[in-house]
Amino acid sequence: MDNVYGAWSKRRMFLAFSTKFFYPLCMTAKTASLYIMVVITVERWIAVCRPLQVHIWCTFKNSVRIVIAIITFSIILNLPKFFEYQIGYSDALGYWPKRGILDAEEHWWYYISYFIIISVIFDYLLPFVIMFVANMKVINELRKSRKERALLTTSLQKEQNTTVMLLVVTILFGFCHFFSMALKIFESIFKDFLNRHNEYFEVMIEISNILIIIHIGTTFFIYYFFSARFRNILLYLFK
């Protein structure tokens, strides 16, 4: 019995500390990877729609600066998440994660301004709109180029494959993250939803997490399927 209680207590302690510290770190990494994908999409737009500016804008120095800016932005954006949860403790229950500034009743200003508005804008709407608009412009430009030429050149074919790949990633992002965004908006409208229907909310949280995991897990296979260069580099690394 003591072994069971000890394992249960360790599990709760791990859950408390991982919620407090690992959760904001994971969200920071997610934001950084998301905006790197946005930058890659914009780079495709420059390469196809502004080819004369490619060698001016798409340089190694600019790439390093952009990556540093993305990492800095991701850290700043997700810094408040380190205070969203606190670690509670009691002799009866041991450690457990409890809501800090994420508590909608005590810190409604944070809950509405950051957790709902800022999060929805910068984690969902802004990156999705940028990727969608950039991909649409690239597709239109490729259609024009295809009409002007009788046959699709090798270079144009590669650009088209890359664009299709990024478009698939964008659609997958929109589909998998829409549920999470809708859940945040729904939670902001029905503030007592957590108290009245906690079990349903937990199920929807799990569905949202599964969809995000699907998005992250399938991105690799999309790259592998559409990008010959990605396949060649991968095969070279694992030789």
UniProtKB/TrEMBL annotation:
The record, for SUPFAM superfamilies, names:
Family A G protein-coupled receptor-like
Per UniProt, residues of the G-protein coupled receptors family 1 profile domain are: 1-223
TM regions (residue ranges): 21-42, 63-83, 108-134, 164-183, 203-226
Indicate where this protein is primarily found: membrane
Q: Which subcellular locations apply to this protein?
A: Membrane
Which UniProt keywords are present, listed alphabetically? Answer: G-protein coupled receptor, Membrane, Receptor, Transducer, Transmembrane, Transmembrane helix
Kindly name one Pfam family recorded for this protein. Answer: 7tm_1
Q: Does the keyword Heme apply?
A: no
Q: Which CDD domains match?
A: 7tmA_FMRFamide_R-like
Which cellular component terms (GO) are annotated to the entry? Answer: membrane
What InterPro entries does the annotation carry? FMRFamide_rcpt, GPCR_Rhodpsn, GPCR_Rhodpsn_7TM
Tell me, what is one Gene Ontology molecular-function annotation carried by this entry? G protein-coupled receptor activity
The entry sums up its family as follows: Belongs to the G-protein coupled receptor 1 family.
Name it.
G-protein coupled receptors family 1 profile domain-containing protein
Organism, as annotated = Caenorhabditis brenneri (Nematode worm)
